[in-house]
Amino acid sequence: MLETDVAIVGAGAAGWSLAHWLARRPPGARPVSVVLLEAPPGPLRPPERTWCYWEPRTGPYDAALTTSWRRLRVHAPDGHGIERDIAPLRYKMLRSDDFASFVARLLADDPDVLRLQAAVETVEPADDGAEVRARTAGGRPVLVRARWVFDSRPPRSLPAARTTLLQHFHGWFVRHDRPVFDPGTVEFMDFRTPQPEHGLSFGYVLPTGRRHALVEYTEFSSQVLTREEYEAALRRYTAHVLRLGRFEVTGTESGVIPMTDAVFARQSGPSVFRIGAASGATRPSTGYTFTAVQRQTRAVAAALHAGRHPLPPPPHRARARAMDAVLLHALDSGRVDGPAFFTRLFRRVPVRRLLCFLDGRTRLHEDLSIGLHTPVLPMLRSALELPRLPRRSFPAPDRRHPRPSDPVETVEIP
């Protein structure tokens, strides 16, 4: 049996982030012993992900970034482009494997941290703490007794909600033989895509050089697509909107992100807490998660270093969650046109204020000023309907669908 102060279950964005902040112990802080349990290679380990977020020019993970940008562009459905410089902020791209390697190097020099590859089977309360039972890839049972357990695994089912949409996407890592991409600008939302009958869709382009980019097709809707439908959408977008011609696909990336007004529990036992997306860190209106995970895990680490009770703080403020609930219902009901809504915000609201709003860091008067740039009557009607809507249970989406496993291929569309 292993005994420790903290057991972290799951080595995704939240698990690695909490381990990182715990290892960065400030002078005079209380030492905290940690066991990080990560799933062995196989179906329980998530595929590599790309996380994007914005922050000032320098940040704690800059050494692991793929790249960053200072300009964002939105294309309206009619083709009109709106480009904004977000300085002093930077829009940053971080690959999950690079992030894991970065944190692992930090943990390698910390005698208080033990990494363990094992599939967690149960987390149960115990005297003055909790017990984690797991099994290694070779079948050996593992028992960890911890004072505090932080569980970042996705829930088997989503909490009951009034509205749940899915942000689902499929992307190609593209290599071109000509310098066709602008490495200084992200195509943040490109609404020059055929819009579904229910929800919205857009293209998303993250250039990592003049000849390389991640090109994604994204939808906000109630149902995921088939692999063939995603591929067809990407072929249309790269051929008829981006007009790329012939290029190579060197890899793929896919994901499904619940966008829900459900209330996620942050505690599942006296000494067991949920962190990350499992605790509601995903912003319901946008799907962004990484920045909220940093706020939450940094606060937990600070509490542990100070010897305080480490209940994770709410990832988002109540006012932000309330506004997101209204927007989700307005989009789901079809009362608000999604492409027009987001294009209008990007066109009329100063971009740094808008990004702060999307992070949930604006003040009340700023929220009100941004609200005036939305379709006020449809949003007000949606807000008035919310209290009468029943909360229903939704199954948790298969976040591995469709799992990226493509070989390199060449795409050529005239």
TrEMBL record:
It comes from the Bacteria. Pfam families: Lycopene_cycl (PF05834). This is Lycopene cyclase family protein. It comes from Streptomyces thermogriseus. Residues 390-414 are annotated as: Disordered. Residues 397-406 have a biased composition (Basic and acidic residues).
